Amino acid sequence: MTVSTPPPIPMRAPLPGDVPVPLPNGCTPATVVIGTPTHTLLADGDDEQTPLTSPLTALPDQVADALHQPGMVAAGLITFDAEHSRLALSSTPRWSAPLLAPYCFRCRHPSWTITPDPEPAAYLAAVRRAQDMIATGPLRKVVLARSLRLEADRPLTIKELLAHLPSPNARYIYAAPTSEDASLIGASPELLVSRHGRMVATTPMAGSARRSFDPTVDQARALALQTSGKDLHEHRLVVDAVAQALAPFCEHLYVPTRPQVTATPTMWHLSTPITGRLRDPSACSLTLAAALHPTPAVCGSPESLAREVIDALEPVDRGFYAGLVGWQDAAGDGEWALALRCGVVSGTSLRLYAGAGIVADSDPEAELAETSAKFSTLLRALRVHTDL
What we know:
Elements: E1 3-4, E2 32-35, E3 40-43, H1 59-66, E4 73-78, E5 85-90, E6 94-96, E7 112-117, H2 120-136, E8 141-152, H3 158-162, E9 172-179, E10 182-188, E11 191-196, E12 199-202, E13 205-210, H4 215-226, H5 229-246, E14 250-254, E15 260-263, E16 267-271, E17 274-278, H6 285-292, E18 300-301, H7 303-313, E19 324-329, E20 334-338, E21 342-346, E22 349-358, H8 364-381
Parallel strand pairs: 1-15
Antiparallel strand pairs: 2-3, 2-9, 3-6, 4-5, 4-19, 7-8, 8-18, 8-22, 9-10, 10-21, 11-12, 11-20, 12-17, 13-16, 14-17, 15-16, 19-20, 21-22
Helix pairs in contact: 2-8
């Protein structure tokens, strides 16, 4: 059995002036914060620049035109449906070392009122309906999400929420404005694509199991995941789709034959690190992201039918959930992660999202439990210790 933290991939290299930051210094609600295992980016939009809000397909050209000098970056969010974005254009991005682990232990954490949306019974019914559709074909997989609505007894700040997200296994810690009065904040394990020079990398994930505090049980779950026919099938659908989308751009593409088992603080995931060398060096990170998104990891297969099922069965619009969060610089280099393990915060309100991949032999109760486990990434950060 192979058990690992996410494998090393091409990323921006730390610079000599980088210093560890316990929290984003100078962070405002308008700041885009993206923390990775090797660096942290803080990007504030220039005063004379309004955020880009175009569809994903239009962004490669628009960002190339807007980033007219070296050192500039475009950073922010793209919606799940890829029809909208919110990218800040910054001529003075701040780079630092990775965010430190949580240090704030004496904060007065809010009291919460929590409402599932939809209720668990409704989510189970949606999963069974999706399985009926899969049984009659041609739908092979669909990712169904649910949400939690949380109301705090006091206003929330991005800084205090970010204080509790970093962990040794966290890959992408992020906060970015979705509007003038709301932000998306989260800790995603999954890289959609990075591009640095002619090197490209992606780490698709699909197939998951909840971790246990008991080491023996925890390792048994990891082993069971690696040998699960259901999860391996679900994972292969994603890997095949990602490799097919990247192949036209690459002169070399390495796709491992078997997935790894990757640990996050709350979940085991099947993951496959894919690397390649671009055939055309002018293909920027956003061009690659547009070719890949949405993968079956967040949508389904076939994509068009899965989108229809999601629209029909999910009562809450995804917005930026399961979309993209990341950055691109003037050279076309960049990193884009899937906006997972996240929530939208506005004032005293917070809406969390989590989803599970549904295939023919899914167990509805197990899929519901998977979403509960994924919620726990943010619920733990909020000091909410309960399954919902």
